[in-house]
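Practice problem: predict the structure.
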Amino acid sequence: MAVPRAEAGEQAGWPVRRFASRIADLSGARRLLASAAGGAMASLSLPPAGLWPALVVGLGLLIWLLDGVARQHRPLRRRMGSAALVGWSFGFGYFVTSLYWLGFAFLVDAERFALLMPLGVAALPAGLALFWAGAAAGAIAVWQPGPRRAVALAVALAAGEWLRGHVLSGFPWNAPGYAAGALDGLGQGAAFVGLYGMTLLMLLWAGLAAVLASEALNRRALIGVALVLATAPLALAAGHWRLATASTGMFEDVSLRIIQANIAQGDKWIPEHRDEIVAAYLDLSTAGGLAGVTHLVWPESAVPMLIDETREARERLVAALPDDVTILLGALSRELHYPAGTPSVRAYNSLFALSGSGDILARYDKVRLVPFGEYLPFEALLEPLGLRQFVPLPLSFSAGPEPRTLAIAGTPDFAPLICYEAIFPRALIDRRDRPEWLLNVTNDGWFGNTAGPYQHLEQARFRAIEEGLALVRAANTGISAVIDPYGRILHRLPLGEAGRLDSPLPRPLPPTLYALWGDLPFAFLLLMSGLVIVVYKRPCNLLKYMRN
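Answer:
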């Protein structure tokens, strides 16, 4: 249904309304450029900037641009096509500005990958933006004057974000729900509705705030918008109350030392640097003595050697350590397999638990691998073209069998999350055997001093809130941290610095609502929001659109 110009915001005397009307009047390339700019603006709500009002401005631009599409006198299918282009442009602007740091990975081995950087930096945002294109097209099909269009857009985008987190193995990086993390109290909502529930709420609040600022509403609509927007400060207050009354106990018999060696990614796999790298980890581990330390935590692929294949390699690592210290570290591993009787080698990105005497106490193989980073999708097609995964191995990594809770004597049971795995809500925790804490080992050295490591830390922090479990993070170049079950960062090491971090281990909370029910609360919110559109939609409009 066309949006009348009066409701699109032409009322004189209020600059935001006049601006909204001018944005709605844009067409062609100017419309798409404005949409991309709106997406870029919205991305400033994410870490490290954390400017949550930017989401209101960015989403407002998208709503006003879609107003212009909705009032075109064209068949529905053509309006949906125009809306899809606007939504794609917005998504591209959002992702290309918030994922720019991916380009730094192409420069680690510049001789092989630098020429592919422009394609790589643009291709992923272009693909992710397709979900936003579909959401905008779906929203325009039920577009109506007034606040309901903001609800429709929030519902469509939140559903699109859920799909983005699950389709083709999923890539839920930088969902708009992470904007809630800029306000500690608001971020506590993730314990109840998870990342996708917070995404719906942030989009709903931002969209309705933009509508409120840009047009005159009748009394009924104004009351409805005010009631929905009032839930934002109420959620913020409830979150602050939860934090103010929080009490986090510690495991009395666990004392962690987290090592951040800050090894340059370009040096990591050069054989001549192996001894130097091992010495750096051991020096940081033993500096100041190990009295009272029960666990050393080293990051992903900390040592460039296959420690599971020779006891001598493990004994070298533990030679300077007390027998009662457990080392938790990332390293590569490989196994021989015999499919159809033919031997083949499989490589794994693994986490090992070693005793002080060099015994392997447990091993976990990474389940969710990074496409193009750890394996090459469609390898049979792309490898002949000269494409390879970034990790300099002669073969792609293989995925581990399933998420696991590791049980080691003297260590509270924990769920390992290797690097990229920390971005997936709920997916990599064994629900049959709930862990007592989360261990995230990672290597963000590929991305230098950019926004990437800050975003990765924030996503790991959300996993702690969602599950009610402490999260310990060891990162090669940073940011290493100890996060309590409420998502509060108790200790951290800065990005790009070598150092060690000593900390006790926080105890878990009882399972949160999200830990118990997963995305069901999000589905309920989505359904209730959808009913607002259906129940109050002017009857027969959709049928009229279809006839047109």
